[in-house]
Amino acid sequence: MNHESFLSRAAAGMTQSAIRRMGGILATGRDIVSFAPGYPAPDTFAWDDFRAIAAELLASRDGSILQYGPTRGYRPLLEVIAGLQRGRGIDTAIEDLLVTTGSQQGLDLVARVLIDPGDVILVELPTYVGAISAFRNAQATMIGVPQEQDGIDLDALDRTFARLAADGRRVKFLYVVPNFQNPTGLLIGLDKRRRLLEWAERRDVLVVEDDPYRDLYFEDSASEAEVRPIKADDRSGRVIYLSSFSKTLAPGYRVAWIAAAPPLAAKLEMAKQAEDLLTGSLDQRVVYEACKRGVLDRQVPTLRRHYAHKRDVMQDALKRELGDLATWPRPSGGFFLWLTLPASVNADIMLPRAIEEGVIYVAGEAFYVNGEGQNTLRLSFSAPTPERIETGVSRLARALRAELAASATAAGAARQGAP
Amino acid sequence: MNHESFLSRAAAGMTQSAIRRMGGILATGRDIVSFAPGYPAPDTFAWDDFRAIAAELLASRDGSILQYGPTRGYRPLLEVIAGLQRGRGIDTAIEDLLVTTGSQQGLDLVARVLIDPGDVILVELPTYVGAISAFRNAQATMIGVPQEQDGIDLDALDRTFARLAADGRRVKFLYVVPNFQNPTGLLIGLDKRRRLLEWAERRDVLVVEDDPYRDLYFEDSASEAEVRPIKADDRSGRVIYLSSFSKTLAPGYRVAWIAAAPPLAAKLEMAKQAEDLLTGSLDQRVVYEACKRGVLDRQVPTLRRHYAHKRDVMQDALKRELGDLATWPRPSGGFFLWLTLPASVNADIMLPRAIEEGVIYVAGEAFYVNGEGQNTLRLSFSAPTPERIETGVSRLARALRAELAASATAAGAARQGAP
Q1: Which range marks the domain in which residue B262 is found?
Q2: Is B54 part of any domain?
Q3: In a mutagenesis test of the A interface, which of B275, B285, B380 is the best target, namely the one with the most A β-carbons within 10 Å?
Q4: Is position B71 within any domain?
Q5: Cys-Cys with A290: which of A5, A295, B352, B354 at CB 3.0–4.6 Å?
């Protein structure tokens, strides 16, 4: 039978994520250094604490630990999250909060609650591919805005808005990742954050602020003051704020959160009711206990040092191996390093050669909503060991030099063959 | 600021679930017997096994246990699920399967992948309220088909289809819960299952078969042969089959699955990628170990006896207390008992009186897509102890008798006041 004819328009437009396709390559079991997915380093996880917490919870035989529970989330966890938000400068009521099954669900809920097919939303160029998927599945029209060294270009943003408004198109929201953006690692400057919020007020646009990497600033190059969320200065409920325990505790628990003005939070809750009823009960309890017992507070400074060191290792290796061929903004936090290659190189076409050399990355094009970025790629330094980072960068350099040599040969042959 | 103006059409139509609203009442801490949500009995959970499994997994420090993982699910768990499916008579390849974050996510994914706004789907009258929410959020037009003692009325089904076809409307799928339906507890007869599938083939309609209660047949009144899924006889990939570990292991793990023809399964996977990336890694591992170590096999016969006993207790209490006022089909499995009250009673209006007496249920109207069912209600016998079931039914009887007395007085007053 023909199943295609039963698909919704949204399903017809769905594609496999560029990042998650890489999983198949890794599953082959070959010796491949993976710079592709933004996985946290599992050796940093608080294994012993998690084991002790799980054992105690399950020994209690408190039914609620494995039972259905409220869609909003486990109430004491919501209170802990409100406290975390206050620590970030965001005044948060329980009515603003919803636990989500990873921040990916938060993005999906935002898409469902705000986007009708054809609605215009603005995103950074490039931007997080998981957000692109969630917005695409809601059939949004995504328009990209370029970035500068200190994040999104506000002049270009307003020009884009004005052009759309002149065409009679309304912009529902702007999606931004202000801290150590996925994929570029860029940080939006503090003054720019303030002006961005003023712009959103003036133009009556919502801001969706995705902030999974906030805690992971590297103390040699960024300070806590610099990662102050846009939401912290939001007085009118214009900013929807997402964050997560995936990068600081562990992604396998799938515990993240979203904070929004109560009328929006109520709709996000209803959308979540129909989407998965609730986030895992035991997972929420473990995360709650990990916060209450100080595990999160102990983890975070260690993680900053851990990932800063790996950033250094990758950057030094890149300078040594590819300093003449690639450029990148120096990341002051997060998991990612964003490479721009010579204009003649297509990172997606180069990928089979890289796999042959034993290294994978995500080709940059997947992060662009406008088809650009062919000569860019995202490297994640978070999961591999320093030694593997060195090995992977050497392999990447070999692949790139071979790619350039092959295209020079091809270009030479083309010239010779020309009349 | 006005947030309403930013909402999608889907969000504007979203409402709070009737079942989950009850959570708020329970949270007040009053002495209330809850017959409202279909919660499994937490004293039946395999606490010791879960504790041992979690401790072993976390002691292993195997990174993948708390890491991101494949959207389809943990591969060994998929293989276990394929085996469970074979035990139900369903020939299943790994390519057919996807782990979902509860069956609620399965329903939501089905809705996203198949439904465009305004598409027609058919559902039983009454049907599972969580499915109604998922389909409503995708802006489906839901048309109800009445049920008989042995499940959906096939003549009414075909008449409904023909009427829609004559109006030029295409029906995308029929949603059914063939085993111990939520909310009625009805079982579709075996012969009717066969004819239902033939009908779907003839009319070129997909079947979405939701089967969370299959293992919970009560051996005094139903046999394993009678719960054979419709999917077991599907040769063309017409049936999308959903089932879950929530009712047999524990709902807090949020581990369920969906089986569909590979072209549909591929789209369901893409939809899940954007919805939550993956179901909890540790949760999947615990469920896998619980299956592999025989915990599930040991649990199920115990659960059958446990819930059959509670069904008996509730039924005896209802006969004694309400035998003259209410009728219900005797459930031969599952969690629910479906009461029809005198036509003059509105179960939703009666609810405050029931709460005052100290008992809650779900008013039946929420399960009807056509606004019927005012004099029906759903009782869940799964979670309360036998003693609490007795207490709750007595309280329900008091509430109903008071409601009838009040409406008789009101009717008398109305008659006296008439000219």
Answers
A1: 64-296
A2: no
A3: B275
A4: yes
A5: A295
Nearest CB to A66 within list B42, B130, B271: B42
Ranges of residues in chain B with a pLDDT under 70 are 18-21, 23-24, 26-27, 417-419
Q: DSSP secondary structure string, A347-374?
A: HHHHHHHHHHHTEE-EEGGGG-TTS--T
Last residue of a domain, one of B268, B296, B324: B296
Residues of A in contact with B115 (CB under 8 A): 8
**What burial letters (b/e) apply to A254-265, b meaning 16+ CB within 10 Å?**
bbbbbbbbebbb
Which of B55, B68, B278 is facing A55, going by the closest CB pair?
A: B55
pLDDT, position A23: 66
Is the CB of B59 less than 8 angstroms away from the CB of A42? no
Residue A183 contacts by C-beta under 8 Å, 6 or more apart in sequence? A126, A127, A128, A129, A336, A338, A362, A364, A367, A378
The Cα of B321 is separated from the nearest Cα of chain A by a number of Å equal to 30
Residue written as tokens 């599992």? A42
Q: How far apart are CA A140 and CA A148, in angstroms?
A: 25
- Judged by CB atoms closer than 8 Å, whether chains meet at A130 and B274 is answered as yes
Q: Are A318 and A338 in contact (CB under 8 A)?
A: no
Question: What is the predicted ipTM?
Answer: 0.96
The pTM (predicted TM-score) of the whole model is: 0.96
Backbone angles phi, psi at B110, to 5 degrees: -55, -45
CB B274 within 8 A of CB B298: no
Q: Where do we find the tokens 């469902």?
A: A112
Which residue among A232, A266, A296 closes a domain?
A: A296
